[in-house]
Design brief:
Belongs to the nucleosome assembly protein (NAP) family. InterPro entries: NAP-like_sf, NAP_family. By secondary structure, the chain is α+β, with helices and mostly antiparallel strands. Helices cover about 50% and strands about 10% of the residues. Strand 1 (about 165-175) and strand 2 form a beta hairpin.
Length: about 325
């Protein structure tokens, strides 16, 4: 999955909408079916053979994604020492060396306006002079990320913020080799006056196989269920964001539109934590990842607008070609 596709998945399914025909979907489905049935029998027979080949391709694609999951699990072990060091620095358990703190920031400083540079220099000088008040680690690291990212910030209420100041780390764990595709988000908290848990978990269950009833809709792994955890709240401390750990469940008789939307949003958030926030946490803290996301969103939007214009232009051209009125103009002759 390339970086652009990864961002699209993290944002969810509500991105650029394809060109919409004026014809109802039901009519289009019937129209497509009728067009197929108008084909000669021998041709239809070969098309069925092609569809069987397509099904084989979908099954191979499913296996491909299963192996991708295994690679993710394998490389998670390589990433973990880095994430552990990040956790320790954020919590103030480890003070990085001067060498570890070296960073080429000339370009960042050049990007600042002169007056902002002066203000930043003054604030830095004041902060240095108040050495006795030097904070521990990186205060409110994860809370800042939550507040910066719209998808996460929408989940918060003001009374959630004091609790999230105690959040020390967010990690992801993958299922063992040969086990069903599962990933678990773990939210690690320091001791606090809100609940007695030190770790809150959210388990996401996935599948990577074509649906028996609609195999050609397969586009890769999908989350099919999630499980939260019981929070041992101290009396009167229950808060809104933490409903995230008590997800709604699909009803036995199916889902209504609101429930489907709620579950889809929950799944999108799980993917976003796993694929974007956890691997690039410091860049969301500084805001750099947000700028990167916005640039891709603008690019996607521009591409979508161009496609819509092209589709509209094609439909207008087709509308000008009326076979009942003699030969069509040169620009819309069929090839």
């Amino acid at each position: 999955m390339d970086r652009k596709d990864e961002k699209s998945e993290a944002r969810g399914k509500g991105g650029n909408k394809p060109f919409q025909s004026d014809k109802p979907e039901g009519f289009l489905q019937v129209e497509r079916t009728l067009n197929f049935h108008l084909l000669p029998k021998a041709v239809k027979r070969r098309v069925y053979a092609l569809k069987r080949l397509q099904l084989q391709s979908a099954n191979i694609e499913a296996k491909f994604y299963e192996e991708v999951h295994e690679l993710e699990r394998k490389y998670a072990g390589f990433y973990q020492p880095i994430f552990d060091k990040r956790r320790d620095v954020v919590a103030g358990a480890v003070e990085p060396t001067d060498e570890e703190c070296e960073w080429q920031s000339d370009r960042e400083e050049e990007d600042l306006a002169e007056d902002l540079q002066k203000k930043a220099a003054l604030e830095e000088k004041q902060a240095d002079s108040a050495g006795a008040d030097d904070p521990k680690g990186v205060p409110e690291f994860w809370l800042t990320i939550f507040k910066r990212v719209d998808m996460l910030g929408e989940m918060l209420q003001e009374h959630d913020e004091p609790i999230l100041k105690h959040l020390q780390d967010i990690t992801v764990k993958f299922s063992e080799p040969g086990q069903p595709m599962i990933f678990t988000l773990e939210f690690h908290f320091e001791p606090n006056s809100y609940f007695s848990n030190t770790v809150l978990t959210k388990v996401y269950k996935m599948k990577s196989e074509p649906d028996a009833d609609d195999p050609f809709s397969f586009e890769g792994p999908e989350i099919i269920d999630c499980e939260g955890c019981k929070i041992d709240w101290h009396k009167g401390k229950d808060d809104s964001f933490f409903n995230f750990f008590n997800p709604v469940k699909e009803l036995p008789d199916g889902m209504d539109e609101d429930l489907d939307f709620t579950l889809s949003t929950d799944f999108e958030i799980g993917h976003f934590f796993r694929e974007r926030v956890i691997p690039r946490a410091v860049l969301y803290f500084t805001g750099e990842a947000l700028e990167d996301d916005e640039s891709y969103e603008e690019e996607d939007l521009e591409e979508g607008e161009e496609e819509d214009l092209d589709d509209e232009g094609e439909e207008e051209d087709e509308g000008d070609c009326d076979p009942t009125k003699g030969p069509p103009p040169a620009e819309c002759k069929q090839q």
